[in-house]
Write a structure and sequence with these properties.
eight-stranded mixed beta sheet; alpha/beta; elongated
Length: 667
């Protein structure tokens, strides 16, 4: 006699759920209000469908005529185990108690939707975009004797005429007064002593010729409870609409003649109930698999974002993932360090990466450089940047990787006259690259190759992260960033860089070259085989790469951004969501895996970041750079290092003479 609901979820609902889970609800598993609907104007032969569409999360649904809204709730489990262990019996009993209360108080006639609530229990696996769900449509059973006595028949011509005369109502439940042939609110009938000349009408989602829909059963219970004592029989028209050729017909409707002689005790203890939807005649949940209809690239992107959002939800609620994802990173070097840094940037959600290198993949590379394969080395024609970009896109198809096969002009490497125009174009291209990116990673083999990117990074006020390797040691550091309009501790006319507050004095953070008193020069010529290769313990590159990316992220999420000061010790209160942000990280594997985090003040005579170098670049541009490339000592001259060395030698000579004089006096 009763046809159960068949839940039907619009794909838009799952999209909405996934979006809200990721961006709004996160790990919140409290009940969420949703709305579903059913229609009593289905084509014959269709099942008793209950629709949950993409509008389910809205307060009001925009639906066609003869669709009836049901208020429900969504219960989201955060794990499969939570879903499996959920107490479904208690939930059903709780919902049945609410229905009984609605019937007892008469609220069901003010809000007929209270007779047809629903619940969706769901576990959303947003890595695979699969949704395990189970719907519950609570329903109070009718007694066996009552079901046997209910007479079901088709709508007669007389009954059709009455419906034609009355105003067709789009409500779920109402009544018709035969005397006036007009609609009556069911609640108005509660005060009547008799129900003679009254028919009840409810929307019926079933299309079966002998059975009514699931929602009608609770209606029958409500009518019997309130009106069973006022009449011997209740007439209920289970209304079904058929629209053909712009005409509306009720011919498929059923009429129930419900005897009231069966006593009805409507209490939680006395009634039996059901509600959990069956899956192929078994009480089992169902699954919606959106991976089959979604672009795999979108699935990959969402899965990567979910990993990061879980970190934010559970551990670091202040972590600004959007800010990290918006960073554009420029990597100088696509070798051992460059490959690892690029992959880790993808793991942090950074998808805009530019690779600069002029090397080609060799047979020794794939075992140490994580983005290359044996096939990339075959023939010796595949550039590192092209191979790395290709494999990064295979790892994360949504990433945007630019590959530039470029040589970086270096101090101490003279530029021939014939090459000057080409090198000028390269310099302009490198300048624009640094200007248009947010963070610069220096992952190069030589000291002199790091000079130009260091100057450009300081000039354009970019985050510059430097990583360098020894045999069993590593250095990871960030360079100071200029802040326009701030005062300078070193007399920098352009501005100050990242600051460190210590002993009430403001100190400017140094760059990779600030610890040196010698300009970079040609270190590539006349090198032996062991000097031409990077000889380092394999694990050091992994460690240094990880630290470089983590240092970058810590700077990005810091309230002061790239200008954040350097943390000296662990006891400091961190301003960054990810903890203290050091200036340098130095480590040695052979010294009990020792690691320290010192800082270096900016050196006023630095050959890369001092005011004299930046001023010269600002005023003379490319011409200044050519002088540096062609004459290594030029940098020492303009920074004052050359004069400092002379003064130091003179002081040292004077000390020797003084000591010699003292010796003679002793004799």
């Amino acid at each position: 006699m009763i046809i159960p609901f068949l839940s039907s979820f619009d794909i838009g609902f799952w999209y909405q759920l996934a979006d809200k889970k990721l961006n709004d609800w996160k790990l919140d598993n409290s009940p969420k209000i949703i709305r579903g609907h059913f229609s009593n104007a289905l084509k014959p032969g269709l099942p008793c469908i209950f629709d949950i569409c993409e509008q389910a999360f809205k307060d009001k649904l925009q639906l066609p005529s003869f669709c009836h809204v049901s208020n429900g709730k969504l219960l989201l489990a955060n794990t499969k185990e939570d879903f499996s262990k959920f107490d479904k019996k208690s939930l059903l009993q709780f919902e049945i108690a609410k229905i009984i209360d609605s019937i007892h108080t008469g609220h069901c006639f003010d809000e007929p939707t209270s007779l047809m609530p629903f619940t969706v229990l769901c576990f959303a696996d947003l890595k695979k975009y699969t949704f395990v769900y189970w719907c519950c449509f609570p329903s109070i059973h009718l007694s066996v004797d009552l079901v046997a006595d209910i007479n079901i028949c088709a709508l007669s011509d007389n009954e059709t005429a009455v419906l034609d005369d009355a105003t067709l109502c789009n409500d779920f439940l109402w009544a018709i007064d035969l005397n006036s042939r007009s609609n009556v609110n069911c609640k108005e009938l509660l005060t009547r002593e008799t129900l003679d000349g009254v028919w009840f009408v409810c929307a019926d989602p079933s299309t079966d010729t002998k059975s009514v829909g699931w929602s009608c059963r609770n209606v029958i219970n409500a009518l019997l409870f309130h009106f069973g004592s006022k009449t011997k029989s209740i007439k209920l028209i289970c209304l079904r609409i058929v629209s053909e050729n712009n005409e509306t017909s009720y011919r498929n409707s059923l009429v129930l003649d419900i005897p009231t002689r069966h006593a009805l005790e409507l209490t939680e203890e006395a009634v039996s109930c059901s509600g959990w939807e069956k899956n192929k005649d078994k009480l089992l949940p169902k699954m919606a698999d959106l991976s089959k209809v979604m672009d795999p690239k979108v699935l990959s992107k969402n899965a990567v974002e979910l990993n990061l959002k879980l970190m934010k939800w559970r551990i670091v609620p202040d972590l600004d993932l959007d800010k990290i994802a918006q960073q554009k990173c420029l990597l100088f070097g696509a070798g051992t360090l460059g490959c690892n840094v690029a992959r880790l940037l993808l793991a942090w959600g950074v998808t805009k990466i530019t690779l600069v290198d002029n090397g080609r993949v060799s047979y020794s590379n794939p075992v140490r450089q994580s983005l290359f394969k044996f096939e990339d080395a075959m023939g010796g024609s595949c550039t590192k940047v092209e191979a790395a970009a290709k494999h990064l896109k295979q790892i994360n198809p949504s990433c945007e990787v630019d590959a530039l096969d470029l040589s970086i002009p270096m101090p101490g490497h003279p530029v021939a006259a014939l090459e000057k125009e080409k090198v000028t174009q390269t310099l302009q291209q490198l300048s624009e690259l640094v200007r248009s990116h947010d963070c610069i990673f220096l992952l190069l083999d030589t000291r002199e190759a790091r000079w130009l990117p260091t100057v450009l990074g300081k000039f354009y006020r970019k985050i510059v992260i430097n990583a360098a390797l020894g045999f069993d040691s590593y250095l990871v550091m960030r360079h100071g960033v200029q802040i326009p309009g701030a005062g300078s501790a070193t007399g920098d006319v352009i501005g100050t860089s990242s600051m460190l507050v210590s002993n009430s004095s403001v100190k400017e953070l140094g760059c990779y070259f600030c610890s040196d008193v010698m300009a970079p020069g040609d270190s590539l010529s006349d090198r032996t085989l062991d000097q031409q290769c990077t000889v380092t313990r394999p694990g050091t590159s992994m460690i240094a790469s990880s630290l470089a990316v983590e240092l970058f992220v810590s700077c990005v999420v810091h309230p002061d951004g790239a200008a954040c000061g350097a943390s000296i010790c662990e006891s400091e209160s961190p301003d960054s969501a990810l903890g203290p942000v050091p200036h340098q990280i130095r480590g040695w594997l052979s010294q009990l895996y020792k690691q320290i985090t010192p800082y270096v003040e900016a050196y006023s005579k630095c050959v890369a970041c001092s005011a004299s170098v930046l001023d010269a670049y600002k005023e003379r541009g490319v011409q200044f750079l050519f002088e540096v490339f062609n004459e290594p000592s030029f940098l020492e001259d303009i920074t004052g290092l050359a004069r400092l060395k002379i003064e130091m030698e003179e002081d040292f000579a004077n000390e020797i003479i003084a000591l010699s004089d003292d010796d003679n006096d002793d004799d």
